[in-house]
UniProtKB/TrEMBL annotation:
Residues 167-271 form the Pyrroline-5-carboxylate reductase dimerisation domain. It holds the Pfam family F420_oxidored. NCBIfam families: proC. It comes from Antiquaquibacter soli. It catalyses: L-proline + NADP(+) = (S)-1-pyrroline-5-carboxylate + NADPH + 2 H(+); L-proline + NAD(+) = (S)-1-pyrroline-5-carboxylate + NADH + 2 H(+). Pathway: Amino-acid biosynthesis; L-proline biosynthesis; L-proline from L-glutamate 5-semialdehyde: step 1/1. It is found in: Cytoplasm. Belongs to the pyrroline-5-carboxylate reductase family. It comes from the Bacteria. The chain crosses the membrane at residues 6-25. Its EC number is 1.5.1.2. This is Pyrroline-5-carboxylate reductase. Residues 7-106 form the Pyrroline-5-carboxylate reductase catalytic N-terminal domain.
């Protein structure tokens, strides 16, 4: 059982909504309640319930301020460009002991600390948070204590695994776990197209590829073995898999991944610089 103090989620969109789902799990207790905000009533109504007070900013312009009053944890889930304005607007309503956490890419803890007097954390969860399998990178601002970091870890562990990193590594982490699901989906997409080209229907091809990926990842997770060793176990000498793997190796996947993550990291730095 995980017990957390009162929480406000400012911008309960895709990521904020995923974290909210984790907070509503049967083994999580949020003492003091959960308050969330969205821009429209249509979105606010989707998350409103017995355990969640939900404000629509179109009807309650001061909803953000109302949500953070009394909250021990304030999660900022708005788009990166909106973070400075949002923090400035709620700064006067924050409780003195409130921990402010942003999940926005490119917004540094230094920027956050220039706008609020509270301790801040910068978090980078990925989209599998929706199914409780996120990997979240967590970096502390200058004012954050070990207790603040532990509280942030407890929050994000409701939706998956947490890795504490120095802020200097957050952008690099985002190129792996943050962007990583897109890489996997792209592989599945192209592998499915190849299976369709072999004569399988789109439905059967999709099933074959999805279940192969799921099974392989479950085997990797449960075995504790190195992925290279598992690959060798599947690759019989002079067999079909060996020949296929040789084609993949000739394509220089190692270099391809290095270039892809480098490109993502370059863009992350551009976003941090406001480009």
């Amino acid at each position: 059982m995980t017990t957390l103090p009162s929480i406000a989620i400012i911008g309960a969109g895709a990521m904020g909504g995923a974290i909210l789902s984790g907070l509503l799990a049967p083994d999580v207790v949020v003492e003091g309640g959960i308050r969330v905000t969205n821009r429209t009533e249509a979105k606010a109504a989707l998350v409103r319930g017995p355990l969640v007070e939900s404000f629509a900013l179109e009807h309650t312009p001061d909803g953000n301020e109302r949500a953070v009053r009394g909250a021990r944890i304030v999660l900022i889930g708005v788009k990166p460009a909106m973070v400075p304005e949002t923090l400035a607007s709620i700064a006067g309503a924050l409780e003195p002991d409130a921990l402010v956490i942003s999940v926005a890419a490119g917004v540094t803890t230094q920027t956050m600390e220039s706008l609020v007097a509270n301790p801040v954390l910068r978090a980078m969860p990925n989209t599998p948070a929706i199914v409780g399998r996120a990997v979240t990178g967590l970096a502390a601002g200058a004012r954050a204590t070990e207790a603040d970091v532990a509280l942030g870890r407890a929050l994000f562990e409701t939706v998956g695994t947490v890795l504490e990193v120095p802020e200097s590594q957050i952008d690099a982490l985002s190129t792996v776990s943050g962007s990583g699901p897109a890489y996997v989906f792209y592989f599945v997409e192209e592998f499915t197209a190849a299976a369709t080209g072999l004569g399988f229907s789109p439905e059967d091809a999709g099933m074959l590829v999805r279940e192969t990926f799921l099974g392989a990842m479950q085997l990797l997770a449960s075995s504790g073995a190195d992925p290279a060793e598992l690959r060798r176990q599947v690759t019989s000498p002079k067999g079909t898999t060996e020949r296929a793997v040789a084609v993949l190796q000739d394509a220089d996947l190692e270099g391809l991944f290095a270039r892809a993550t480098a490109a993502a990291l370059e863009r992350a730095k551009e976003l941090a610089a406001g480009a």
